[in-house]
């Protein structure tokens, strides 16, 4: 679990945020729901300790340089009390939540698949490997728009990679066997995510 705890209020310069709740925690990051008091509207804030600044900066750079309708939108970032903060658009729930709660019918399955594919294709056109496609990293907004999130594992594919990235449950065989791999590994992980949707939702209706 991530060690970071959020105060009731904190600041990005003169902009004040109010902590509204915890959305999720992990080994090196935590995500919180916040309200921007001066301008209104809820946002998500992803926090990381300074020791993970390289991952943080890489994700910020990807979100800034390669925005897309089906990638979570970057708002701003700042440092507050030795913790790095990334302000992002707020989604309603994850694809994992949708699968668990049986929210996916055939139409929703097709729509989610198309939007996920559009986000991944955008990254691949820019020679970027997502590296961690799984239901937990796919978010859905209040308007039912699917967004790729948690882009900390994104890699620029100037040459094949040989260091494992992503979650073991959705890794391609060439990653787990520590061989050379590239953009096609995202397609394998994409397929495993579709399999999760089919097995856990469609086939049980």
TrEMBL record:
What family is this? Belongs to the protein kinase superfamily.
Against SMART domains, the record matches this protein to: S_TKc
Q: Does the keyword field hold DNA repair?
A: no
Gene3D superfamilies linked to this entry: Transferase(Phosphotransferase) domain 1
Q: Could you name the domain of life of the organism this protein comes from?
A: Eukaryota
Q: Where does ATP bind?
A: 46
Name under which the protein is recorded? Serine/threonine-protein kinase Nek9
**ATP-binding as UniProt keyword:** yes
Organism, scientific name: Linnemannia hyalina
Q: Which UniProt keywords apply?
A: ATP-binding, Kinase, Nucleotide-binding, Serine/threonine-protein kinase, Transferase
Domain spans labelled Protein kinase:
17-205
Recorded GO MF terms: ATP binding; protein serine/threonine kinase activity
Please list the coiled coil stretches. Answer: none
The UniProt entry, under InterPro entries, shows: Kinase-like_dom_sf, Prot_kinase_dom, Protein_kinase_ATP_BS, Ser/Thr_kinase_AS
